[in-house]
């Protein structure tokens, strides 16, 4: 892995590696001696490597992009797999995918993961938001949407109504503005660690990007109102999801 990671450092803003997190040890640009440092750390205890990029994505422009490398053995198992859910993976391989997307255990595990994510981000949103919510409340709603779609909520009349309202909220201009604002904040954070020889160009691109989105970023009053509503919606969705899990467990018993 060390030489492959070193190859991804990049020489332009089209794909610029900014941070490497190797089993919780962080390396920052300009990455002098990165490959040698990673080779010294390479051993059986390494489970994951996280690479953070500034990346020029066609249509969307500059975006924060992350690649997570999970170390597994020849039987496609290992502790690193606990960091990933098969339903969130883009699998590129020869032959059949190594993990079963439609297996009962895999689907059950993913549903439980989504359930915990809804509660986690809902609690985080309440704790961080000044007016009762934060962008994490939107994440809670997105996880709830994934869960409801996976269980076929559109086939139930009452849940279908909830699902339509959830999609309408997540697709609204106000929500879009808050998501864009969060992405711009992530880009600004990454730009702090850009290789010095690219720093000026990266900041110029970021300034142009911010200027292009300035009309959709909500003001403080609208942001607080939307996030409070997101927190309340996520809380209601959590109640629905907990009720569905309780019903399913009752039926199984």
Describe this structure in words.
The chain is an alpha+beta fold and 253 residues long. It contains 8 helices and 4 strands; from the N terminus they run αββαββαααααα. It has a 4-stranded antiparallel beta sheet with strand order 2-1-3-4, sandwiched between helices. A hairpin with a 3-residue loop joins β3 and β4. α3 packs antiparallel against α4. The protein starts with a helix and ends with a helix. The mean pLDDT is 85.
Quick recap:
The chain has 253 residues and is an alpha+beta fold.
Write the layout of secondary structure elements.
Layout: H1 2-7, E1 15-22, E2 25-28, H2 34-41, E3 48-57, E4 61-70, H3 104-128, H4 135-150, H5 157-170, H6 173-191, H7 196-213, H8 220-252
Antiparallel strand pairs: 1-2, 1-3, 3-4
Helix pairs in contact: 3-4, 3-8, 4-5, 4-8, 6-7
Q: Residue ranges: pLDDT <50 for 5 or more in a row?
A: none
Give the neighbour order of strands across the main sheet.
2-1-3-4
Question: How many separate helices?
Answer: 8
What does the average pLDDT come to? 85
Distance between the termini: 47 Å
Proportion of residues in extended strands: 5-15%
- What is the overall silhouette? flat
SSE succession: HEEHEEHHHHHH
Helix/sheet category: alpha+beta
Question: What labels describe this entry?
Answer:
alpha+beta; 253 residues
């Amino acid at each position: 892995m060390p030489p492959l990671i070193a190859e991804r450092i990049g020489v332009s803003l089209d794909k610029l590696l900014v941070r490497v997190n190797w089993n919780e040890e962080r390396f920052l640009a300009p990455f002098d001696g990165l490959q040698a440092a990673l080779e010294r750390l390479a051993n059986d205890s390494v489970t994951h490597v996280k690479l953070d990029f500034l990346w020029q994505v066609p249509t969307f422009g500059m975006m924060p992009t992350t690649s997570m490398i999970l170390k597994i053995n020849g039987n496609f198992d290992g502790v690193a797999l606990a960091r990933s859910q098969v339903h969130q993976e883009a699998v590129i391989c020869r032959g059949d995918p190594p993990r079963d997307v439609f297996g009962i255990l895999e689907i059950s595990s993913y549903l439980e993961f989504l359930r915990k994510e809804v509660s986690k981000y809902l609690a985080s949103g309440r704790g961080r938001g000044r007016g009762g919510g934060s962008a994490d409340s939107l994440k809670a709603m997105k996880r709830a949407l994934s869960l409801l779609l996976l269980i076929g909520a559109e086939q139930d009349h009452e849940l279908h109504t909830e699902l339509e309202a959830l999609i309408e909220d997540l697709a609204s201009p106000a929500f879009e503005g808050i998501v864009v604002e969060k992405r711009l904040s992530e880009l600004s954070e990454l730009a702090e660690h850009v290789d010095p020889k690219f720093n000026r160009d990266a900041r110029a691109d970021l300034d142009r990007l911010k200027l292009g989105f300035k009309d959709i970023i909500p003001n403080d009053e609208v942001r607080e109102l939307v996030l409070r509503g997101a927190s309340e919606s996520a809380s209601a969705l959590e109640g629905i999801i907990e009720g569905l899990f309780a019903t399913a467990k009752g039926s199984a018993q």
